[in-house]
């Protein structure tokens, strides 16, 4: 009996792996941290507690390595179904070899049109105070629609916030609205070139 109890305890403590299939590619996320006593980030707490298809989608996003803002995990559950479907499509567009950021268009992104990159991502790939950026827009994964120039500038050393100047022009030209999802894929770290995959929420609503 003691041996059986010990085996059960050992099994309970083993880290689990949750697999996800995406176009034949296997994604897996070790949940060692999620089942430990280590302090968890907001994203990790949501990954541990969310259930059903929404929980599966968020864990898949976390496993993909795509960066999100610190506020994303708290707003994810409140996203409309069509935006969650766009998040799923964005993960399908992601190339693991390229650093990427996922941003769901909120009111501030659309009007007045302000876009900033997550601090951790920005500090790693944008060390200079001001750098030119090229944004190559794609409808979905493959259909390229154009190229725009922008400037990435730090707001201040204290806030550690990197803003895209000239973002309003990109947003207007591509008719982005609240709820749309953009995956910023950094394909050239030296020249700061992004592929921006646009996943429109209204198309998911139309196809429901």
Automatic annotation (TrEMBL):
Task: Give the PROSITE patterns listed for this entry.
Answer: B3
One GO term describing the cellular component:
nucleus
Q: Which GO terms describe its molecular function?
A: DNA binding
Gene3D superfamilies, from UniProt?
Answer: DNA-binding pseudobarrel domain
| Positions in coiled-coil regions | none
Domain (TF-B3) spans: 100-202
Cellular compartments annotated? Nucleus
Keywords, A to Z, come to: DNA-binding, Nucleus, Transcription, Transcription regulation
- Name of the protein in its database record: TF-B3 domain-containing protein
Instruction: Supply the source organism for this entry.
Output: Linum trigynum
The organism's taxonomic lineage, starting at the top? Eukaryota, Viridiplantae, Streptophyta, Embryophyta, Tracheophyta
């Amino acid at each position: 009996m003691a041996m059986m109890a010990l085996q059960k305890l050992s099994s309970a403590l083993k880290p689990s792996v949750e697999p996800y299939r995406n176009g034949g590619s296997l994604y897996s996320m070790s949940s060692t941290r999620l089942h430990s006593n280590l302090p968890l980030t907001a994203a990790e707490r949501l990954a541990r507690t969310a259930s059903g298809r929404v929980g599966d989608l968020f864990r898949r996003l976390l496993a993909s390595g795509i960066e999100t803002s610190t506020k994303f995990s708290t707003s994810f559950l409140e996203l409309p179904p069509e935006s969650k479907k766009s998040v799923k499509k964005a993960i399908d567009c992601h190339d693991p070899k390229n650093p990427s950021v996922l941003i769901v268009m909120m009111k501030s992104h659309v009007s007045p049109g302000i876009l900033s990159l997550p601090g951790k991502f920005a500090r790693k790939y944008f060390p200079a105070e001001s750098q030119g950026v090229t944004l190559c827009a794609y409808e979905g994964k493959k259909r390229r629609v154009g190229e725009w120039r922008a400037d990435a500038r730090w707001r201040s050393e204290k806030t550690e916030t990197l803003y895209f100047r000239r973002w309003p022009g990109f947003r207007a030209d591509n008719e982005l609205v609240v709820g749309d999802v953009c995956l910023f894929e950094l394909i050239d770290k030296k020249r700061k070139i992004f592929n921006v995959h646009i996943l429109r929420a209204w198309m998911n609503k139309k196809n429901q």
